[in-house]
Amino acid sequence: MIFSAGLGTRFKPWTDKHPKALAIVNGKSLLQRNIEYLQSFEIKDIVVNVHHFPNQIEKAIEKNNGWGSNIIISDERNEVLETGGGLLKAKDLFTPGEKFITCNVDILTNLDISKLINFHSANKALISFAVTNRKTSRYLLFDENNRLCGWRNTKTGEEKGPHLTSPEGRGTTSLIEKAYSCVVVFEYDIFRLMEENNFSGKFSLIDVYLKLAADHRIMGYDHSGDSLVDVGKPESVAIAESVFI
What's the predicted TM-score (pTM) here? Predict the structure, then answer.
């Protein structure tokens, strides 16, 4: 699933008239680039959620025949649901019992997804997501075994999570800060667990991770050294174009 429903408020003025998913980097939209990225790992059945200028996204997919992939639209026209709510709404579009991947349309990376999947399988995880050691203001916190323990906002000092002292009892200062790369492998059981924990409507996947980390293996795969650009603002397009030809 490619999360493409956001309002793109940081990407104005483009998003005053267009969805961020169709912003162009070296002649290709962010959506096309992510579809082709997934194709490079033989992933061709893709859910795309829409909310902001949804007709433009649908027309682009139709005009380009999905750029060679089988695209299914998850319609969030009535209300943008954030990443967690958007995923739960799309539940019926996934194959029961099969793991799947999500990514954000405004993140471009050359992360090797096959390595992420192998890491996920080796750790028998419920969820595994890519992380790096880049600088940010909001970090996910891990123990030395790459298991998620919590979350920290370095600007406000806020911390939350089930294992802020780490599962082994050591303090929060011993936990390792990593930045979220927004490429995630899920076991299908995530849908049952979200429903059992009363997640509904609009919510973030980060909240899901922190809720479930107490009892489930949620793992961070460090791919520091790979290319990654958050195309969140207009000025980041030039950075992306210097990396992704």
Answer: 0.95
Number of domains in the chain: 2
| Closest of 22, 24, 25, 44 to residue 35, by C-alpha | 44
Q: Quick one: 146 and 87 in the same domain? A: no
Alpha helices in 74-220 (DSSP H): 82-89, 113-122, 190-196, 205-212
Q: What is the torsional sign of CA 27, 32, 37, 42?
A: negative
Identify whether 238 is part of a domain.
no
For the segment 187-210, what is each residue's pLDDT rounded down to a tens digit? 999 999 999 999 999 999 999 999
* Structural domain of 43: 1-103
Output the CA torsion sign for 188, 185, 136, 82: negative
> Structure tokens of 215?
């009892």
Query: What was the pLDDT predicted at 173?
Result: 63
Classify residue 47: in a domain, yes or no: yes
Q: Mind listing the pLDDT tens digit for each residue in 26-45?
A: 999 999 999 999 999 999 99
Same domain? 99 vs 117: no
45 in the same domain as 1: yes
> Based on the domain organization, do 142 and 214 belong to the same domain?
yes
Are the beta carbons of 184 and 92 closer than 8 angstroms?
no
57-74 residue pLDDT tens: 999 999 999 999 999 999
Do both 97 and 162 map to the same domain?
Answer: no
Please, what is the angle between helix 82-89 and helix 205-212, to 10°?
90
Q: Rounded to an integer, what distance in angstroms lies between the CA atom of residue 233 and that of residue 113? A: 25
**Please, which pLDDT band fits residue 162 given cuts at 50, 70 and 90?**
confident
One domain for residues 81 and 115: no
